[in-house]
Structures are given as structure tokens and as C-alpha cells.
Amino acid sequence: MLAKNVNFREIVPSDNQKIKSIIRTDLEEFGRAIPGSTYYDTVLDTLAQSYDDTPRAAYWVVEVDGEIVGGVGIGPFPFPGTAEVQKFFFTPAARGKGIGHAAFDIAEAKARDYGYTQLYIETFNNFKGACGLYEHVGFSRIDHPLAAASHPACNTWYVKELV
User: Can you say whether the dihedral through the CA atoms of 110, 114, 115, 119 is positive or negative?
Assistant: First the structure.
């Protein structure tokens, strides 16, 4: 069941540092604050502006009781018809409450609106809860990156057909 008082909205520049903190804290928690991971993405400081400047891309901040607890984005990936699910991270307190599932529903709907036919995710195999969620919402695990990996440290990949 989805937590009460949950709000999904598009990211604005004043959210950048909070989302950056959530992403980095999660990666540290799972021992993945390593080169080639999202931890070192320079775009984290200007995330809102980056999504605003990228066609067919969007990022949603998730709030519970007015507090930012995570987010998810989609953006073009260098494989035909494919959007990458990006920077899907949540605070520990927000996990397991249906928030991630609801965020995926929003991201998938927007990907369809943008005309994408497939979603792609790069992640780590020790993100057990996230990997379980990906499979629960219809992603299939593949044994290699779909194209040139945007985060070469990742060791687990998923796709979902939208057609």
C-alpha cells in the first residue's frame, strides 16, 4: 500500500543538493560509492537543469509529508527506442512502502508519452530490494549492458518492453 501524503513532482533546481545527498548516501550504504557509478556523476549538482535541457527526459522528486525522500528519472539511451531509468534512489525510510512502484508507474507512462518502446536500467546486484522491484514491475534481467554503459561499474542490467 502506498504511504499517505506522497507527492510526485518534477525536479526544480533547489532540489539538486537533496537528491544528490540521497543518491550518494544510498551508494555509500551499499558499498557502491565507486568510480563508474552514479556517485561521481558531475550532473548531480545541476540535475534539474540537465533534465530541462534534455529532450524526452524528465525527473520526478518524491516527497512524503513535504520531505524529499527520493526520485526517479528517464532519459534517452543510445539504443533505438530506449529510455534509461535514471537515478532511482530513496531514503531507507521510504523503501518498502509502494513509493518506488508508484514512481515507476509515472516514469513508464511518461516514457510511453515520449514514444519510447523500451526501458533500460543499469544497477548493482547487491541492491536486492531494487532488483526485486524491477522484476515485480515487469523488467527482465539481461546478462550484459544494452549498449555503451553510462555507468560502467554497474554489474546488473534490466529491460522492459513498452509495446
Answer: negative
pTM of the model: 0.94
What does pLDDT average to over the chain?
Answer: 94
Q: Pick from 101, 110, 102: which is nearest to 57 by CA?
A: 110
Give me the helix-helix angle, 99-113 and 128-136, nearest 10°.
50
- Continuous H helices in the chain: 16-29, 47-53, 99-113, 128-136
DSSP state of 94: G
Domains of the chain: 6-161 (3.40.630.30)
Where are any strands of DSSP class E within the chain?
A: 6-10, 58-64, 67-76, 82-90, 118-123, 140-142, 156-161
Summarised one tens digit per residue, pLDDT across range 57-100 is 999 999 999 999 999 999 999 999 999 999 999 999 999 899 99
